[in-house]
Amino acid sequence: MTIEKAAAIGGGVIGAGWVARLLLNGIDVAIYDPDPEAERKVGEVMKGARRAYRKMVPGGLPREGKLTFAKTIAEAVDGADLVQESVPERLDLKHRVLAEIDRHAPANALVASSTSGIKPTDMQSAMRRPERLVVAHPFNPVYLLPLVEIVAGKDTLPEAVEMAKEAYSSIGMKPVVVRKEIEAFVGDRLLEAAWREALWLIKDGICTVEELDDIMRYSFGLRWAQMGMFQVYRIAGGEAGMRHFMAQFGPCLTWPWTKLMDVPEYNDELVELIATQSDEQANGLSIRELEKIRDDNLVAIMEALGKQNKGKGWGAGALYNAFTGELAKRATKPKASKAAEKAKAEKKAEKPKKKKKD
Amino acid sequence: MTIEKAAAIGGGVIGAGWVARLLLNGIDVAIYDPDPEAERKVGEVMKGARRAYRKMVPGGLPREGKLTFAKTIAEAVDGADLVQESVPERLDLKHRVLAEIDRHAPANALVASSTSGIKPTDMQSAMRRPERLVVAHPFNPVYLLPLVEIVAGKDTLPEAVEMAKEAYSSIGMKPVVVRKEIEAFVGDRLLEAAWREALWLIKDGICTVEELDDIMRYSFGLRWAQMGMFQVYRIAGGEAGMRHFMAQFGPCLTWPWTKLMDVPEYNDELVELIATQSDEQANGLSIRELEKIRDDNLVAIMEALGKQNKGKGWGAGALYNAFTGELAKRATKPKASKAAEKAKAEKKAEKPKKKKKD
């Protein structure tokens, strides 16, 4: 499927990120968010996203989709072929919101939840048409990072998974279908494991948040931007490859190298310790300034990876080439060629309408 | 300190990576490795490293240091001011090798272990001069990734830590001193946590190694090349920043989102499953080919980050600018200017000899 009109339910960091990606791909979006500040917040995210997309495609972007702020979920989902739910991670709230979406969305609309960890099966129980629910879990910033984890629940139809893969591919994303449904899927399992360990390291005073961040971004962070841990370890095995690596490092797993048996107590003291160190690390830069730096860096990394592998691009870089190429192709024509555009439109009117293809 | 002559004890993937970084910085290295294949293997790593450095500094590199293959540890450490130990992770072996290094190295030589996780205190017991031992834990590929974790044991002198910081900085690295000694330090704690979780995901059939790798490198891997997890989450908190993020996501930690209470059994079946999937993922590319792609990608990412932040560079990119600038400055002069070099040499001979400064 291609997306003609989308609805975004929830306009927080993730919801607004979806809105930005959709609009910048030329898709109309109706958003519902009860927060009176929603319009301003989405506007801020749009500003950042526009700035990043202009860097990605300096020759001009497609005409932006139209954004509408709806007063109710029913109004937002009206006529939508994709409804993206991004409300807070509480099952009761998800149930309420998904039931409402389900009741009012067109029968053939795909309903996708942005949840980071709740199983789709646990959410489907609230729906009369559970077969069209998938989890489509993105990563922040949604308008730049290409990954979306697709997870089916027990009542999800295979067709819904296929629709989701097509829909997200058509807006420059990399859908990866998770084979079995588990809480937190794959991405957040890995993130939670690292996060839990990181909290111990800070709590125990082994390092500060800045030192920990530096340890990541001057070492394996650079590796993981281009190859995941298995490919990286395959190479680390040297000429003998993966079997050698596994044999060499396998035993370490049972050494006391992680605090695996415990979760650090999440109290005010720990929150304060981390928040204070994080303030110091920011070194006077506001969230918005950090966001710009982050976005510039991400665009630069993807662009750099796009030039690798004999110009074909590697990993996210290959996808970046295809995506930015597509955006450039669909760019709004400059005003000079208005006459040509009119002629083209007239010519088109003679032919039967073809399905729009992204 | 600057390094005038280094000794490398052990020439595996890590040891050879150290040799490459040192030689390409113009430092003479004597290596000891009992493997009859050591010379060929180090030669292969040098080939890859030279290729990467030529990309980094296309205008010419400093004269390479001289590499000597020593027959004994005593011969290798003779006259060295830095001895880098990179033998396999077995405490008994570390004890034997460090005792031998300690016995023969110059009294003022710094002794550094590349261990990924053994506490320096546990290794110092084998040494008569334990005060000069530090852990200096690098990341593969050592000739490209800048991070080195510096860890002191209970008998390490603060001066040794200072010497280590200076020495590794002088060869383009980012030393981070770990505040308290724990097994696996900081980097490998995080890596082990993610690795353990990854093994579960493969073992349980949630995803393949290729899917897991894609999930990493199309999402948070791109983020972590430029900011670590705390800075990233600070931004994800939106306008409310870190305190908001902690409050929002804190409770998830005790949800069943990781297999935290258990270690997957590391049997032949699991090794075979992963190795087979890894073979498929490689898609016919040899380790050497993958290594080239990895190195090209890493250089491209660091170069791209070097152009960010109004040209000052960001994170590993800022360091990359300084390092490549330094290498370019120290590049061997092209032959055309031989006369000029001779004149300079004559002029130098008139002045008292100054300490070489990297």
Automatic annotation (TrEMBL), chains A, B:
Main localization, broad class: cytoplasm
Annotated GO CC locations: cytoplasm
A Pfam family the protein falls into: 3HCDH
Pathway assignment: Amine and polyamine metabolism; carnitine metabolism
Biased composition (Basic and acidic residues): 338-349
Quaternary structure, from the entry: Homodimer.
Role this protein plays: Catalyzes the NAD(+)-dependent oxidation of L-carnitine to 3-dehydrocarnitine.
Enzyme class: oxidoreductase
Signal is among the record's keywords: no
Superkingdom of the source species: Bacteria
The family this protein is said to belong to: Belongs to the 3-hydroxyacyl-CoA dehydrogenase family. L-carnitine dehydrogenase subfamily.
SUPFAM superfamilies referenced in this protein's UniProt entry, alphabetically: 6-phosphogluconate dehydrogenase C-terminal domain-like, NAD(P)-binding Rossmann-fold domains
Region spans: Disordered: 329-358
Protein residues bound to NAD(+): G10, G11, G12, V13, I14, G15
Signal peptide start-end: none
Protein name per Swiss-Prot or TrEMBL: L-carnitine dehydrogenase
